[in-house]
Amino acid sequence: MLFFLLIIAQGKIPPNATLIFEIELYAVNKGPRSVEAFNQIDKDGDKKLSELEISHYLKEEFARDGKTRHPSVHDEILADIFKKNDHDGDGFISAKEYNVYQHDEL
């Protein structure tokens, strides 16, 4: 995350002075996702996530948390994942689309 701090002081700040900062959150950006998570989902190692791979991963996660869900929830989540991440519309989510390589660091 990148932070900018602007301090406007009138005159000198005395030594040992207590400074109080009021901070306002301006924006939140989605950082990179984990390469490890991508590789865990990418069962066939082709560097792209298919609907089947993500579906299998979702089923594993649903089973792990132990909550009962209607099957339509799985389908809605899967559709939403592809709607938001399959930017080129090829039916796969690449590492770039998964946001593995994008970093906010300086």
In a few lines, what is going on in this structure?
This protein is mainly alpha-helical and 106 residues long. Helix content is 35%, strand content 4%.
Protein topology:
Layout: H1 35-41, E1 48-49, H2 51-65, H3 71-85, E2 93-94
Antiparallel strand pairs: 1-2
Helix pairs in contact: 2-3
Overall shape: elongated
Low-confidence stretches: none
Strand order of the largest sheet: 1-2
What integer is the average pLDDT?
81
In whole angstroms, the N-to-C terminal distance is: 9 Å
Helix percent band: 25-40%
Q: Give the helices and strands as they follow along the chain.
A: HEHHE
Proportion of β residues? under 5%
Quickly give the structural class: mainly alpha
* Structure summary, number of beta strands: 2
Descriptors:
single chain, 106 residues, mainly alpha, 3 helices, 35% helix, rotamase, EF_hand_dom, EF-hand-dom_pair
Structural commentary:
- With 106 residues, this protein is mainly alpha-helical.
- Helices cover 35% and strands 4% of the residues.
- It has helices at residues 35-41, 51-65, 71-85, and strands at residues 48-49, 93-94.
- A two-stranded antiparallel sheet has the order 1-2.
- Helix 2 packs across helix 3.
- The model has no long low-confidence stretch (mean pLDDT 81).
- InterPro entries: EF-hand-dom_pair, EF_Hand_1_Ca_BS, EF_hand_dom, PPIase_FKBP.
- One of its GO terms (molecular function) is calcium ion binding.
- Residues 29-64, 73-106 form the EF-hand domain.
- Keywords: Calcium, Isomerase, Metal-binding, Repeat, Rotamase, Signal.
- It holds the Pfam family EF-hand_7.
